[in-house]
Protein 1
Amino acid sequence: MTPVSDHLNKTLSKALIKSQADKSQQEIVIIHPEALLDVAKVLKEELGFDMLMDIAAVDWKDRRKERYEIVYLFYATQSNKRVTIKATLNNQNPSIASLINIYPAANWAEREAYDMMGYHFEGHPKLERLLMWDEFEGHPLRKDYPIDKRQPVPVLRELL
Amino acid sequence: MTALANNLKEDVIEGRDMGAKEMVLNLGPSHPAFHGALRTQVKLDGETIVDAASEIGYLHRCFEKHSENSTYQQVIPYTDRLNYVSALMNNVGYCKAVEDLMDIHLPERAIVIRVLICELSRIIDHLVCVGTNIVDIGALTNFWYTFNVREKVYTLLEKITGARLTYSYTRIGGLSRDLYSGFLNDLKVVLGEVREAVGEVTKLVANNRIFVDRTRDVGIVSKEDAIAWGFTGPCLRASGVEHDIRKLEPYYQYETYDFDIPVGENGDTYDRIMVRLEEINQSMRIIEQCMARMPKGAIMTTDRRVRLPEKQEVYNSIEGLMNHFKIVMHGICPPEGEVYSRTEAANGELGFYLISDGSMNPYRIKVRPPCFYMFAAYEEVIKGEMLADAIAILGSFNVVVGESDR
């Protein structure tokens, strides 16, 4: 069963790279990163995936030629279906469009991916660090960030 | 009366602009009404919030990075510290993710015990949330009722697991130890007390004029907004969406239990509290069914990839010794692959997105903490509300910082 990729094949065939299923037979669709906004619109408006559950950033350092991957988990409340959308980002400048206008839940999820993995989200109004502090250097979840590295403790900042 | 006071009086009567300035106020990061190290800065016009922005990260301990550098078993104690109000549910959620990845099937007894402890955790989580939420808006009595029985449940869980807060009770493939004899009798007594307390609290607040005025139409989250912001669990159900993973994507044979999903109408603070109170009753129904069907048998799977062999076997056979050595020294090595495993935790959908590269360390674990998305929306929800209501709303969202910050 690959309902999402079948539909995308009909409407946005250029966006699609391939589709597969995970262990629980949930559909995984791999798309071109530049097509994300179009795919998200189709998912929300035509296929009823009205909820963005989570965004996961994965660093495949040395294991893949293009190391940065982003994973979107969508859920449809009406039909109780799920789909995973994946895209591979550029090594030099890992950047992808922000989903914040289509899915407001993307706000903090994208900030976290920026903070932890250094992905850039075009169109995000406030792409700032979320869990780490502003002066923090580097992105801790990248595989080349040493786990025992320490950095100076920050001071309280103004939010407004 | 002086001239100044007279002028002031006229200004107030005629509603003239008295040149009051907007005030910026910090809520948190360390304040008793802000449960945990959260910080929201609000801009006030009088007592009305005109702008707000939140910040998290004070309790960030790089759970995900630590997990990547630990074995699969070593992650279990870390999960205790996610939602520390109902730590057992994180234990179960994480172990379920690894088991899903490895296609491990649990024995019947382990499944029923996991359901039972999850529902007990849901009860204490809701008791804490409701109790502290109501005490924040001025009703202290309910706090004693809820925390009194919560203590009883804690004592019970301590007798099962050996710990009061950070249980680490589950193992990949089962549980660390069986229930003690006489547990079901103790549980029956505790359930009776919980039922009484929940009944008392419901009677005290449900039609209480002050309580209703403080919570009705406060912090309304519409159905559409709740879905768009990624709300799950009681907060989503309070907004009128009948969504519960236990019903829609049942795991651990939840489809065989008889229970209802309470749903709210307005999506306000009142609904969120009432949904939680009713969920406690429904959890007790599930626990009673668990008690009735509690099967006998093993609490660990027989799968040799995750189960430590019996001591007898380790000492007397080379296979047993090697098996023991492999699990202790090399850990558990799930096959290459990925899984997104979710459970219905007390706060909503607790998801573990797990990637294995076939080695003894998880390649990537991404947790989906349910309250992360609720608190992300908090700054939008409180705009236009009164300052005192912001505290009531925060309590009803039940933000647990251990979980949102990881």
Protein 2
Amino acid sequence: MSDQKLVASKLHAADVGRTAAVGLRSRKTRAFLSAVGIAIGIAAMVAVLGLSESSKSELLATLDRLGTNLIAVQAGEGIGRGSGELPDTAAPMISRIGPVEQTAAVASVDANVYRTDLMPEDRTNGLSVQAVDITLLDALAGTVADGRWFDEASASFPTVVLGSVAAERLGIDEAGGDVWLGDEWVTVIGILDEFELSPDLDRAALIGFGAAEQYFDSDGVPSTVYVRADPEYTDEVMGVLAATANPINPEEVEVSRPTDALEAREAADDTLTALFLGLGAVALFVGGVGIANVMVISVLERRAEIGLRRAIGATKRHIAVQFLGEALLLSILGGVVGVGLGYLITAIWSSYREWDVLVSQLAVFGGLGAALIIGSLAGLYPAVRASRMSPTEALRTG
Amino acid sequence: MSASRTVLRLEDVVKVYDSTPPVRAVDGISFTVEEGELLGVVGPSGSGKSTLLHVMGTLDRASSGLVEVVGYDVSKLSDRKLSSLRSRHIGFVFQQFHLLSGYTALDNVADGLLYTGLPLDERRFHAAVALDRVGMGHRLDHLATKLSGGERQRVAVARAIIGSPEIVLADEPTGNLDTATGDSVMALLRELVDMGTTVIVITHDREIADGLPRTIAIRDGKIERETVAAGAAI
């Protein structure tokens, strides 16, 4: 027995990477194709998370701008649901609720609006005429596209402000002209932008309550009262609105929060997000199986190399590390490409929808982490198999 | 002349494969090899010479008997220790060359020191020296796939000797080469021996064996005959 101590075989960290890349270098197409599966999975997951976050941030910004303290009080319609009108005391009663900051009533006017007096009466374009409080624009966080909104004076005169769709259907793109409303020529003093919280009003010609009573025989009984409440007491206010608006038949009153519709839409999007995430996970899993498959074949094909490496001093562990490293390299390659692709998809779609591009670190690192985990799982079996191969067997059959 | 050192000692080595019926591929072989010797192990196909090479190279363990490589009793070494032994004390030359196709001649040879822990630039330096020694100094940056058979085997020899191992085991080193190229590779191995390396050539080729100073002929796992050429210094 020799007295000398054997110096252990060792492999530098830098060489671990080098040996792991041997298979990738010599079989580039195969490496690329097997990384594609992982890339697709990760890209799908990152893009889905990114799009969902970007759209959520857009929703939050919208809600922030519009405020979640807007409540719509409407008369229920249909059999047993009342007449479609709120009591005319509704608006003043509601405004007496403590935390109510603002009310704006809307009442239907029995008239139609036309471009000229020569239009047949049945060509209404699906437009309605609504009498509104001058507080409405403020309450609904609406904006004027052209011209101006009502003031105390113009609300009593035959003037009209057109909703965005109404203006478009009437072929009017700037304030100043006249439209034929009921049996009167009425001056268009303003055109509005879209209402995000009340799309119905986009298809209406709006007139002041004073003008409605004076020129169009409207009784001024509101169909809807929009309420701005103190944000801290919105729920409490919602609780008492029905009874306040119609103390005799509170069940005939519908109370809703327009922003709930936006949130409901987002909730539906969440379900889709979960579905796509699931699909991404399936793609990732399939990608992992692909890598495992490629690695198993690679181990079989490279028996000679394994035998040679054992002959020049590699331990079983060195062989296992090499093949595990190769699987990890493949999956990281796929992961990096996938994250980049996912980010690109998010960026393109978000800029198309004019959202802020938001890809969280969680999505990026989660994606890379998932790729790493899949890679190590996929590489484990082939690596162990390679390391257990007897060197003589490997050399003989290789 | 200084006293030579025994670099390889086999005593009653037996290797049995657990097939049905069990095969005694190596059946009680004993011999020693001294430092700087050129030994031929010759035998027909199936005689057990490849198994014997694997046992001598510590790639396989003997079923019984003593295998001592550069003073180490192989049976007492763990798998990891055997890897260490191979990385520093034994060089291999194979019939199929076993070069990595995507690598240059230089990097293929440098890999001979991969598991010794030397950094890459030092490995490459030693590889350039080794390639120069085998007459391939002008082909450092050629891909292995671009080399001729004889050149590939020279690269493989360079890889085997890069770490200056005590023993080089050559398994049919001329098996895939034409006669002239084979002769030049044998001449190269002789040069290595002249410079002090111990080389053991396993071959089925009688002609090659006849040109070696000492040969051990084996058949059915047993030593059939040992020949020492006249004038050969042992």
